[in-house]
Structure formats: structure tokens, C-alpha cells
Amino acid sequence: FGSGLVIVPFLQNGLVRQTGWLDERQFLIAVAIGMISPGPVVITATFVGYLVAGLWGSVVATVGIFFPSFLLVLIAAPALVRHRGNPQVQGFVKGAYAAAIGTILGACILLGRIAIGDWFTVLIVLISLGVLLRSKVSNVVLVAAAALVGLIAFPILRPTWVLLK
After folding, report:
1. Do 92 and 141 share a structural domain?
2. Residue 6 contacts residue 103 (beta carbons within 8 Å)
3. On the CB side of 66, how many CA atoms lie within 13 Å of its CA?
4. Which helix H or strand E contains 113, and what residues bound it?
5. Tens digits of per-residue pLDDT, 78-124?
């Protein structure tokens, strides 16, 4: 239900607020690095585990992120498929989808408050959203294009950064 971004707010709360292992900027960088690679949240967790505790930290973080979902799919998926015509199962699935959408939006708001801090980043967000809504451009292509625009434009424009909290 949803994507790996569903757990970003939980990761941020645990890694930044509760334990203080990462600051907001480090967390944003970890998520960004994870987003440009396969399996973004698993890679993000692996990277954070490595930052916190080296090789074994990355192994433990990867298993900790991957294994619970794997078990849930292994156990629950056959039952959901078998009973997909049941109104209660349909209600469960619709509720889970709605919750996933809410948590993904929460992740977007959380990351946006960290990453969007000036008029130019707001402009890039709005243009990117417009492109996504009007075309079938790949996320990788869109992120690469926006990064290239930022690479060229930010040194020239030098927008004032005002971190939004």
C-alpha cells in the first residue's frame, strides 16, 4: 500500500527527533541519496545504518526495514487475494490505501519543510509538479533535470535560503 515513502515520517521522527542520530539536513541527504537508487527507502535505511554504526549498522537497518514488510506480504497477501470479494476485506484495502496516501502526503510535507527554503526551490517544486501531472516523464529524468537546473541557476541567482519549520 503506497510506496516506501510511507515510512519516511517514522524514520525522521526516530532518527532525528528521538535519537538525534542525524540532524534534519543529514536526514534529507540520506533520503535524497536513497531516492536516486533502487529501493529508495531500503537504501536510505541502509545508508543511515552505515552512518550510525558502520557495516553492521547497515546490515541491521536493511533487515529491520525489509523483513517486517516481507513477512506481512508473505502471510497476509494470500488471505487478501482469497477473500478479495468480501466487503470487509475490500473496506480494509480501501482504508489501507487511504492511510498510505495520507502518510505519503505527510512525507512530502515533512521533506518539503526541510528542502524548500527559498523562492527558487518553490518554483522548481511547482514546475516539477506541473510536469508530473501533465506528462508521463520518468521520476529519474525529472529529478535529474531539476538537479541540473539547480546546479546552473543557484550560483547565478543566489536565492536567499529561509528554512521553513
Report:
1. no
2. yes
3. 13
4. helix 87-115
5. 887 788 889 998 888 788 778 878 877 888 888 888 888 888 999 99
What is the model's pLDDT at position 1? Answer: 43
**Same domain, residue pair 111 and 123:** no
Find out whether 132 and 142 touch, Cβ atoms under 8 Å. Answer: yes
Name the grid cell of 119.
Answer: 523562492
Model pLDDT, residue 148: 94
Regarding pTM above 0.85, the answer is no
Longest dimension (CA), the chain: 59
Cell numbers at 133, concatenated:
501531472
Residue 131 identity (one-letter amino acid):
V
Alpha-carbon span 128 to 147, nearest angstrom: 11
Confidence of residue 42 (pLDDT cuts 50, 70, 90): confident
Sign of torsion over alpha carbons 137, 43, 39, 99:
negative
Whether residues 25 and 53 share a domain: the answer is yes
Cβ proximity of 44 and 33 under 8 Å: yes
